[in-house]
Every structure is written in C-alpha cells, then in structure tokens.
C-alpha cells in the first residue's frame, strides 16, 4: 500500500517512474522523517514476499518444545536494504525491532507496522489530500460501517 501511494505521489509530482519509491521519500523534505521506518517495513515485506531463505539449527528441550539454536540468512538472499537494517543477532530490524525471521513475524510486528503506516498516511494527506486520503475512508468493521481511522484507534494504534 505504501509503495502504491508513493508511486502515485511520484506521478503527481512528475517524478521519473523508474525511480525507487524510497528514494522519493528520502529526497522529499516533509517525508524524510518516515524514511527509516518505511525502509524497515519494505524489508519485512520483502522477507515475506520474496521468501528470503534462512538456515537454522533447532533442538527440542526437556519439555519437547522446539528451540532455535542459531539462524542465518543464506548468502544470496536479502539485498542492500536488508543488510542495512538487519541485526543478525536478534534477527530483527534495528529501529522498529520488526522480526525478520519469517516464522516469528507476529501480531506485535503488525501493530508496529500499522502504527507507522498510519502516521505516514496521515502526514501524506496533510501534505496534499490529492496524494491519498485516509481521514474520510469508511470500512466495514465488526458489522458496522466506520471510519478507517477509528478501526486504527481500536487496534491501539495512536495517530499523530
């Protein structure tokens, strides 16, 4: 979603279509504060979508619970963005502490990503409502038609 919105922004600003969405964020003054978070979110998306392959050593403890002994991403997987934000010891991103090991990505990661993206979307709309509107979007949630921002608040996501 963020990449689609960034591409729309690039189009409206008559930016080169072949330029990368994150490069647009980096050079757009008001969007720069979101660069690091968006970079990490894009990396997690890539981990999921491009199936970065990890090699792991596991064992079962005395309670027969599976435990991770050691894991590393196989050479050739991951890209510059991944290497820039990955803490290979924790297998998380460095700023938002998002899980990079696919089987550990969870609800807590979702809430962090959702909060960061909502902050970005609100800022995008404040900058130029023609880029993207979020404040007056309605969705069906738990059988009711409500503002999307209310759904976000119900998920304990604070909006800036």
Q: Summarize this, please?
A:
This protein is an alpha+beta fold and 160 residues long. Helix content is 42%, strand content 17%.
Please explain how this structure is put together.
The chain has 160 residues and is α+β, with helices and mostly antiparallel strands. The mean pLDDT is 90. 42% of the residues lie in helices and 17% in strands. It is built from 6 helices and 6 strands; from the N terminus they run αααββαββαββα. The protein has one domain. α1 crosses α2. The strands form 3 sheets. A two-stranded antiparallel sheet has the order 1-2. The relative contact order is 0.13.
**SS-based structural class?**
alpha+beta
Widest sheet, order of strands: 1-2
Outline type = flat
Strand tally is 6
Low-confidence stretches: none
Ends distance:
19 Å
Series of secondary-structure elements, N-terminal to C-terminal = HHHEEHEEHEEH
Could you describe the largest sheet, including whether it forms a barrel?
2 strands, antiparallel
> Helix proportion of residues, in percent?
40-55%
Number of helices: 6
Strand content: 15-25%
Whole-number total of structural domains: 1
Rg over CA atoms, rounded to whole Å, is 18 Å
The whole-number mean of residue pLDDT values reads 90
Task: Provide tags for this entry.
160 residues; alpha+beta; two-stranded antiparallel ribbon; 6 helices; flat
Task: Please give the structural blueprint.
Elements: H1 2-12, H2 21-27, H3 35-49, E1 54-60, E2 66-73, H4 80-85, E3 86-87, E4 92-93, H5 107-127, E5 138-141, E6 144-147, H6 148-154
Helix pairs in contact: 1-2
């Amino acid at each position: 979603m963020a990449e689609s919105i960034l591409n729309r922004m690039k189009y409206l600003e008559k930016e080169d279509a072949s330029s990368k969405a994150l490069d647009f964020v980096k050079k757009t003054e008001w969007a720069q504060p979101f660069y690091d978070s968006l970079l990490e979110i894009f990396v997690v998306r890539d981990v999921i979508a491009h199936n970065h392959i990890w090699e792991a050593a596991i064992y079962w403890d005395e309670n027969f619970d599976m435990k991770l002994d050691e894991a590393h991403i196989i050479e050739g997987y991951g890209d510059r963005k991944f290497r820039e934000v990955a803490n290979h010891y924790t297998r998380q991103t460095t700023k938002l502490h998002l899980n990079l090991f696919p089987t550990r990505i969870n609800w807590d990661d979702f809430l962090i990503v959702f909060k960061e993206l909502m902050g970005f979307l609100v800022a995008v709309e404040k900058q130029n409502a023609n880029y993207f509107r979020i404040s007056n979007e309605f969705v069906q949630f738990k059988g009711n038609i409500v503002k999307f921002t209310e759904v976000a608040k119900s998920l304990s996501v604070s909006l800036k």
